[in-house]
Amino acid sequence: MPDPRCITLAAADLPKAWYNLQADMPHRPPPPLHPATQQPLQAADLARIFPMNLIEQEMSTERWINIPEPVLEKLLICRPTPLRRALDFERALDCPVKIFYKDESVSPPGSHKFNTALAQAYYNREFGIKRLATETGAGQWGSSLAAACNFFGLELKVYMVRISFEQKPFRKMMMQTWGAQCVASPSEETQAGRDIRQRFPDTPGSLGIAISEAVEDALTHDHTRYALGSVLNHVLLHQSVIGLEAQKQMALAGLYPDLVIGCAGGGSNFAGISFPFVRDRIHGKNVRILAVEPAACPTLTRGPYRYDFGDLSGMTPLLAMHSLGHQFMPPSLHAGGLRYHGMAPLVSQLKRDDLIEATAIPQLECYAAGVLWARTEGFIPAPETTHALAAAVREAKQAKEEGREKTILLCYSGHGLLDLAGYDAYLSGKLTNQDLPQAEIDAAIAKCPAAPAPA
Amino acid sequence: MPDPRCITLAAADLPKAWYNLQADMPHRPPPPLHPATQQPLQAADLARIFPMNLIEQEMSTERWINIPEPVLEKLLICRPTPLRRALDFERALDCPVKIFYKDESVSPPGSHKFNTALAQAYYNREFGIKRLATETGAGQWGSSLAAACNFFGLELKVYMVRISFEQKPFRKMMMQTWGAQCVASPSEETQAGRDIRQRFPDTPGSLGIAISEAVEDALTHDHTRYALGSVLNHVLLHQSVIGLEAQKQMALAGLYPDLVIGCAGGGSNFAGISFPFVRDRIHGKNVRILAVEPAACPTLTRGPYRYDFGDLSGMTPLLAMHSLGHQFMPPSLHAGGLRYHGMAPLVSQLKRDDLIEATAIPQLECYAAGVLWARTEGFIPAPETTHALAAAVREAKQAKEEGREKTILLCYSGHGLLDLAGYDAYLSGKLTNQDLPQAEIDAAIAKCPAAPAPA
Q: Is the four-CA dihedral A197, A200, A206, A208 of positive or negative sign?
């Protein structure tokens, strides 16, 4: 009998509570500031954007927060997710590493975003909200929220970054199949969208623009709130089921990872896989934790740490984070989910405290790792996920050079079945790295208006 | 804690042998005939099309055939597959039924076809073959064989039915990602393809045409053989892992199905889920077994039982089967995998012996069931799979009318993530049933040249 490749958990092993790293981290992030007054934000300031139950969760420092029964029930559609051993990828690399991947691609929309989508749709419904507005980059978040809103009986309007809307038409159809409405952003349906279209008629869009549109939509419609798929504390909280399950599964494999890897756009799948391990690290465990971002949108590795807006128009609160500036327009990478100018405040704080590392990898190296993965493991990864795979390749080669064995755990955040155009471009030699010159990044950062420096 | 929805098996529960129904069926199908002599086919007659080890399997009547270790190893990538309970679909139907579905969509290419693709690629490699040629309808088979050939180091050329090639461009990209070549059929690359294009320049293509092209390709290239994704005995054999696993999982659920449902194009996923249960039925168990086909390609329900060719040009052996005639050109249904004029001889024989039932369902009713499924269970089914779902809806309603409880097991043969254009057409009201008038079917059947009637 060949080696098992998959470590499954029973339904009873599904975590019953989310893990909140804020209870354990040595320094919590500085508070968000009100965009107008630049004073620390009060819960009430967010009440027109989010329902109060989620605002409370956003601000909570409780270590464990119970997952409501209706959310558990829907999580069981695809959770606990498998932990798989990448046996053939390891063999192809021929390096002294064991690579385990937590497979979040098995959810109905195909990524980890489903975890927080269910929770956010549920809490909004509990608060009496009838309709949500959101943005989406590659479409993973929009389609996840579409599935979740469908389950909990909410209407949904999705503003999808134009470049992804065009590259990934199936994502829109997927959202419609679950009953949501999806438009390309910038759109004609909001003031923010119309302004941008007038200034930059050919813009590929960005998450920053789409967030402005979705927030404006929520502020201008009755019984409507905004939902965000990453960056915020409560979103990262909901993703902690990934790492909690992975800890049980690694224990079943009789191993503890030397290194935990996640790709990082806003930071949510990275936080999901890693925060329970960050807790271990805080308590003295010898584990490295690595966030991987695109070289063309190098937020953690090159963006300064400061207060910045989450969106292009400056409608959101100011968050203390690594940021390339809220006016930064990332190139049209296929990894649309990683095209974000900022990084979650919790992740940014961990970077400042040297509890995590970060690296940036160019697009072509990521696709090379993705194709090698598809041809060894069989599954075709999302362009975002290939960043974690490319980092695993680098780490494996380093392990070989150093002659040291290494156990790697990575978050396989989503599949690439709706992103095959990127593979087509790569395989036909049409893809480039789309790296940015340092001067262009400096200019974007300089354009960002002054905001108080975090403590 | 909510009810578990998923019954998983451990790697050790993967079947170690395929189940061959020929050992148990009361009447075996009449032998295939040589296309020229119309005499019973000898193994040697097939030797230029298939490798001898698969020909032996095709003709075997052994009950259990061991699965080779390298095939087991690759099956473990996604097997044992989950058996899930469709709790929310049941609630939406509000009928006295329990519905379990065997989820074959979790394979890398997204369908059950991966099961036989692995076996066929392995046996060809063992026989010293370097290259395979095949046809594909919706692309599920072509992409599965692409993944399998990639694993076992074979080249692959896929002739993809033109209508699907155009509707589902991502399938081609998927095959390329695994290193295969894919062209639209009819193509300019074979005599069979050029002939058809001359006669019918606007043809949407059909599986029958694509098979002619692939067989011709295999006959005219060195070290090349042909591979078929359905219909033949050895293909159905390889799919028996589905039903064997499902039997263990139903036992874990403490239930035995009253009814087993599979959609049927050539018959392979239907055979996979049902043959182990057909065996039970032969041995006196009270279980109904239902094959579901499109109303626009009603092979089992309306096609006469006779000897017919598997392809359009009459290059294949004559098989004893229900057939609409090998020149039948099915409408451009989205369920491309069900657009085949014939039905597997083993399945056809079971129908003759009243061991199975068959029904045909129009396209719109299938999509309605598929959308209900997506909005309740979350997962978006392949257009082919929606036929099994629509049949389950009919059976559930009947159970309610009759006031009887029913446990249904169905084969969830694949996901619809690369078939979203069909959902888009359905949701925007552009889809029609594409039913065929009886006269048109009669004409197609009449056009079929006379062949000896099976015993």
A: negative
As a whole-number percent, the residues of chain A with pLDDT over 90 amount to 86
Task: Report the residue of B114, B177, B375, B426 to disrupt the A interface, i.e. the one with the largest count of A CBs within 10 Å.
Answer: B177
3-class SS at A87? helix
Residue A358's H or E segment, with its range, is strand A357-361
Fill in the amino acid letter for B148: A
Size of the A and B interface in Cβ pairs below 8 Å: 123
A110 φψ region: left (φ > 0), alpha (ψ -120 to 50), beta (else): left
* Span B33-84, pLDDT tens digits: 998 899 999 999 999 999 999 999 999 999 999 999 999 999 999 999 999 9
| Residue of A105, A67, A100 whose CA lies nearest to A85 | A100
Lowest mean pLDDT of A49-58, A312-321, B198-207, B446-455, name the range. B446-455
Q: Which residue of A has its CA nearest to B4?
A: A11
pLDDT tens per residue, range B355-410: 999 999 999 999 999 999 999 999 999 999 999 999 999 999 999 999 999 999 99
Distance CA B291, CA B387 (A): 9
In chain B, domain spans: 69-110+234-442
Chain B residues inside the 8 Å CB shell of A1: 11-12, 16, 72
Average pLDDT over residues A194-210: 91
User: What's residue B4's pLDDT?
Assistant: 73
Cα gap B172→B166, rounded to integer Å: 10
Nearest to B173 among A69, A178, A420 (CB): A420
Residue A455: predicted pLDDT: 66
Question: What's the whole-number mean pLDDT along residues A76-90?
Answer: 97
The domain B69-110+234-442: what is its CATH number? 3.40.50.1100
Q: How far, CA to CA in Å, does A267 sit from each of A113, A422, B358?
A: 11, 22, 51
- ipTM of the complex as predicted: 0.95
Q: Which two tokens stand for residue A339?
A: 């095209």
CB B177 to CB A423 under 8 A?
yes
CB B335 within 8 A of CB B294: yes
For residue B226, the SS3 value is strand
∠ CA B125-B128-B133, nearest 5°, is 65
d(CA B59, CA B212): 23
* Minimal-distance CA residue of chain B relative to A106: B106
Which residue pairs, CB below 8 angstroms and at least 24 apart, start in B181-185?
A: B181/B155, B181/B156, B181/B157, B182/B136, B182/B142, B182/B146, B182/B157, B182/B158, B183/B157, B183/B158, B183/B159, B184/B160, B185/B135, B185/B159, B185/B160, B185/B161, B185/B209, B185/B210, B185/B213
Whole-angstrom CA distances from A279 to A254, A273, A274, B6 are 20, 12, 9, 31
CA dihedral B120, B123, B125, B130 (to 10 degrees): -50
User: Which residues is B407 bridged to in the sheet?
Assistant: B98
Question: Which pTM value belongs to this model?
Answer: 0.96
Half-sphere exposure of B425 (CA within 13 A, CB side): 16
Rounded CA Rg of chain A? 20
What's the average model confidence in pLDDT over B88-102? 98
pLDDT in tens, A383-431: 999 999 999 999 999 999 999 999 999 999 999 999 999 999 999 999 9
Through-space distance between the first and last CA atoms of chain B, rounded to whole angstroms = 58
For residue range B322-354, list pLDDT tens digits in order. Answer: 999 998 888 888 888 898 999 999 999 999 999
The helix/strand/coil state of B182 is strand
For residue A304, which phi and psi values (nearest 5 degrees)? -70, 160
| Other Cβ atoms within 10 Å of B279 Cβ, number | 21
The residue behind tokens 């159809």 is A173
